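Please fill in the sequence for the structure shown.

STRUCTURE ENCODING:
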């Protein structure tokens, strides 16, 4: 016990007084997708968006997951779809380069901000693809702003958290937020090493991966997590009058495939594509399969 106290005190002193140094990278480093963006105003908040693809092509809106941004979630998928679609990838509320407000918010508020950004960009209707937390935002967007959503793509996402999981993840979130208020390094290092190990990011871009993680706002990430844990679309999901594609990674470790299949059964008009061997990070590890499914669905008449 005395040893643990000494180690804990040593760690705390190091985190408070020591340098914040990056990992040692394995070789020459590069950015994996040099796609610039810009901001638009939604009310008094600036929302960061990235656009690419032909201006006269069908619009495809991409909404990222928790702890990610519009580049990290989609950097491998965007080049595979940019020739056929006008892609708009948005940093959601408090993530990436979008304004970091401190107001209380729910997933519905994030959807309203996306609607405002699409209005500022002059996009009247689009296929909207949401990954993980972005899938919850996409559901709310289709519910609250149906005129904007022509087709709905839900990737590794859910309609709600079962109560036991919700409370368990709330406890994890509270503990994680407390740790990251002292130091972001430890949680970020685990996350960074995992994505490299599973091949979600190439070693030549590990500097970009580390800096993306360290540049996030942990407080906003945990507020988004708690908003996602409160999200529940079961009351109205079956009333959405829009075709939906549900992409399920069969080995998803964060959003159980059974939850995703349950969500698909609640939708009025859904097509399900399951990706064998894929885990939760499939847009980064299985971009070809995801791009094929999304591209075929979004281009269907």
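FILLED IN BY: designer on duty
SEQUENCE:
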């Amino acid at each position: 016990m005395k040893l643990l106290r000494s180690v804990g005190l040593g760690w705390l002193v190091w985190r408070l007084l020591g340098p914040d140094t990056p990992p040692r990278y394995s070789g020459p480093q590069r950015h994996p997708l040099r796609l610039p963006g810009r901001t638009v105003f939604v009310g008094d908040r600036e929302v960061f968006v990235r656009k690419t693809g032909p201006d006269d092509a069908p619009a495809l809106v991409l909404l990222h997951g928790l702890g990610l941004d519009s580049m990290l979630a989609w950097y491998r998928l965007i080049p595979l779809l940019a020739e056929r679609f006008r892609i708009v990838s948005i940093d959601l509320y408090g993530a990436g380069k979008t304004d970091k407000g401190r107001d209380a918010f729910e997933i519905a508020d994030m959807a309203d901000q996306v609607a405002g950004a699409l209005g500022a960009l002059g996009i009247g209707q689009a296929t909207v693809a949401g990954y993980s937390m972005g899938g919850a935002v996409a559901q709310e967007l289709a519910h609250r702003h149906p005129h904007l959503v022509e087709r709905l793509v839900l990737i590794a996402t859910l309609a709600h958290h079962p109560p036991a999981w919700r409370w368990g993840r709330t406890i994890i979130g509270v503990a994680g937020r407390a740790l990251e208020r002292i130091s972001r390094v430890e949680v970020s290092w685990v996350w960074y090493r995992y994505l490299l190990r599973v091949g979600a990011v190439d070693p030549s871009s590990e500097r970009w991966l580390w800096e993306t993680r360290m540049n996030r706002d942990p407080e906003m990430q945990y507020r988004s997590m708690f908003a996602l844990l409160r999200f529940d679309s079961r009351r109205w999901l079956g009333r959405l009058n829009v075709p939906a594609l549900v992409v399920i990674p069969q080995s998803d470790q964060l959003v159980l495939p059974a939850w995703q299949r349950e969500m698909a059964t609640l939708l009025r008009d859904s097509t399900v594509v399951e990706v064998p061997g894929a885990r939760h990070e499939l847009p980064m590890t299985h971009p070809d399969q995801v791009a094929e499914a999304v591209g075929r669905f979004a281009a269907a008449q």
